[in-house]
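Human: We require from you a protein record containing the residue sequence and its fold in token form, and nothing else.

Assistant:
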Amino acid sequence: MGLGTEVIVTGYYDWYMVNSNQYSGALDASFIYSTAPAGAAVYPTASQPTRNTTVIGYMCRIRSTFTDTGGLSHYIFSYDNGTGVYVNGTLTAIVGAPLSSVTDEVVKLNTTVGTTIRAIYYVNNTVDNWDASPALTFTTTAVPTTSDIEDSMIETFETMFSMFPLIVLVIALSVVEAGRGGMVDNKVIGFAVMVALVALMWVVIQGLGV
């Protein structure tokens, strides 16, 4: 079926698009998006994907955030590297059925300037309802754009922020270990234990995507 074809199935409006022969596992990858009237089954959501570069030949991180009120299950990353055809990746499990998940896929961009790149994420939940992200579309460039530089700075900050609780946890545990050898006062050890617990909770919360 073509893009925008509307089909009514058990009260839902389902849209289908492109390349029914491009699929992963047992899933029909022509399925792109479903929406339901109020009071019907709950569907997951996938945010507008973002990219961190447009430079030809560069490794590009394409990111989307998935959310669901009952639990996420799997996703498929679909990518067009300038051929005009989407190619689907493998069906990938979202471990632990979280309510939210930030997902990255890294691809190497086409080496020709001016090539149109497209990407879509498909995501389902634990009751097998599917959604698709809006399509990310951009054109490759010869040099980094201002947006690329800003995105790179933001990504660096996010990486540093995500590692901070792990660093704190390691330092706190080192202090506790030193205390066991009699090199640190008991009050300092007590404080280090408290800091370690807080850092551990932070790491767990980050892992759960809360």
Observations:
- Residues 146-180 form the longest helix (35 residues).
- The helical segments are 146-180, 186-208.
- The radius of gyration is 22 Å.
